[in-house]
Amino acid sequence: MTLAILVAPRFDDASSYSYDWSREIKKVLEDKGFQVIDIGGRPLSRAEVEKALTENPNALFIFYNHGNEDCLWASQTEKAVDEDNVKLLASRECFTMACLSAKQLGVEAYKVGCLAYWGYTEVFAFTTEDADVFKEFANCGLKFKLEGKTWEEALQQAKNLAKELCQKLIEAGKYFSSILLQQDADALRCYTPNNPPTETKCIFRKIALKIFGPKLGWRISRSQALGWLFFLVGYGVTLHAVADELYWKGGYAEIFKPQGEWVGLALVMLGFILLVSDVVKWLRK
């Protein structure tokens, strides 16, 4: 039987709503034949969430509660998942209904091998007056996936549903709810190997994403990027120093003569290109 870990703490008014919404998801999962490990309805500890994830590798992970850019909250004071234990999300699909976590934690999850991370880059806002409408939107993504859609298709269908729900809210004169729901839809992300993150604060990562694209850009490590940068800067400094020395020895005529220095530098650059090309081929696999 397929396993799913459903974590839904409850410790304030907002988490009471998210816990209630998670009950529908639990029923949908069980109707689809999942065995659901249900942890929630109260403040949780980091240890019990880690225990469930450790003992059930590859199980679908579902989280309903508060989040932050770098974590998912187990209680008002304790984090269930953050960058220190994000490796527990590797090789599994993750569906979160939590504020902000796709902004940073979801990116880190993608980088350690999370197969899919569904979440939001901004605060998930809703009105209690139209809580059922926001619940329909919040839960629809996993429902679409369980119906056989890919995560990418589920993401697009969720955004399409949000437009339909927003229009119905407008027609009912509920403009504020419509605005909030559209903002939630705009903040929705789903990171997969076919749909990697495209946003980052790191200047080097931005350059890598721009040059190599998202799929390859996220696989280049910082040490690789810095190594390439240091090599090219060092190579440029050496090239300038050799050219300067030859100029003072005999001017431009001396620079353009066949020299052992040029042969050596050419071989070094050729070796670097061959090494980098092999690394790029490996990263593309």
Could you characterize what this model shows?
The mean pLDDT is 90. The protein has 2 domains: 197 residues, 3-Layer(aba) Sandwich (Rossmann fold), CATH 3.40.50.1460; 68 residues. Helix 1 links the parallel strand 1 and strand 2. The protein is α/β, with parallel strands linked by helices. It has a 6-stranded mixed sheet, sandwiched between helices. Strands 4-5-6 form a 3-stranded antiparallel sheet. The chain is built from 10 helices and 9 strands.
Strand order of the largest sheet: 2-1-3-7-8-9
Strand content bin: 5-15%
Whole-number mean pLDDT: 90
Radius of gyration in whole Å, from Cα? 25 Å
Detail the poorly predicted runs. Answer: none
Order of helices and strands: EHEHEEEEEHEHHHEHHHH
Helix content: 55-70%
CATH class of the largest domain: Alpha Beta
Q: Count helical runs.
A: 10
